[in-house]
DNA sequence: TCTCTTCCTGACCGTATGGTCAAGATGAAG
DNA sequence: CTTCATCTTGACCATACGGTCAGGAAGAGA
């Protein structure tokens, strides 16, 4: 509300620095966890003095909260592609594609999110209970409709969603393990394509959508 | 090797306290991460003075290392059930069953493991490069044999393994999220059965094993 | 130019943490 | 009982951390 988007040098500086800090924070939180991350290290990565971080973000927790919220938004909107799909093959296929792409483009964010949830969601518990629950109910309903219409096998919609989250986010959260098993090298474009194809193939066939 | 298992009151005390500390450490590391965990809190959970922890484990890292190694062992041996199975339906089905059971019985250990890998495996990198790589190569070969024998569809064995790890461990690592979506209550026995059945159904069907 | 607000930052502070230690308690062996 | 090794623990220490603050720099508006 308010905060007239008066474009000026001032607002530019603010926006730029906030972004810079948030990016550095995402990286450091992903690598070290909330407890292991230090404001000093985030400051170093951002290339700013530590005191400057506290000018933009009052506390370490405030900064962390913003990082988590950012990822949560991205995460939620990935499912938009499901909504206006004619059936599970297209809808779930596209959702897998979208989430795999998130794992590839935002691995740090995915790790921060995983870490947050693993530790009991201390800062986004309320979102889980409201936004995420509604989201899940809605999408489970969509899947159930596809089942009722005979477009896919009878599976438990919620467990299918869990499986989709698990398999796609695994490529970000356990990216280091996958990289190690891949000879220490990150997946190439071709390998990412193969990964996406594998996930889609097994799941879509598993739910009787193809 | 060595360490004659001379059973005495002394060895008993040592074994008992080490176990006590390791259990407390697993819990605290799972809840707070390595950086967020404190020796004092682990000591409190174990019901021992902090100085006593340092008598049994020189440093926080030593203690952490032991916790991670313990889980790694459990993790590896879960796949034993695959080896003497006649085909993928039994072998992979049993593996899913075993890993789901680990997620249920050792959620803390699973979280510590996930955290360790997510942060770049600072303490078990060498295991990933040796033990885990061999393990993976071996199991991928087994799956490939099943494919060659026409017992299942042509899927990428490694990506199938990733999917198995992801889906089963998700129930431990993201247990809090699942619990929240389940109305704030842990899964009941019946719900765990349904979870296992869902995972098995989709994957086994997805790989053409049933 | 002058004034006001926002931005920047080195120096500082209280606290909590991992780890140490010395002195005492407890069990094993003779 | 004596001796010795193991175990236990309160008190202590150096360090690193999150956070504060005062005073200066730099835009914005007149």
Tag the structure with descriptive keywords:
DNA-binding, mainly alpha, disordered N terminus, Tet_transcr_reg_TetR-rel_C_sf (chains A, B), Arc Repressor Mutant, subunit A, 11 helices, 77% helix, 210 residues, HTH-type_TetR-like_transc_reg (chains A, B), 2 domains, Tetracycline Repressor, domain 2, homodimer
List the helices and strands and how they pair.
Two copies of one chain form a homodimer.
Chain A: H1 9-36, H2 39-46, H3 50-56, H4 60-77, H5 80-83, H6 88-105, H7 107-118, H8 125-148, H9 157-173, H10 175-181, H11 189-206
The structure holds a DNA duplex (30 and 30 nucleotides).
InterPro entries (chains A, B): Homeodomain-like_sf, HTH-type_TetR-like_transc_reg, HTH_TetR, Tet_transcr_reg_TetR-rel_C_sf, Tscrpt_reg_YcdC_C
Domain HTH tetR-type (chains A, B): 15-75
Organism (chains A, B): Gemmobacter denitrificans
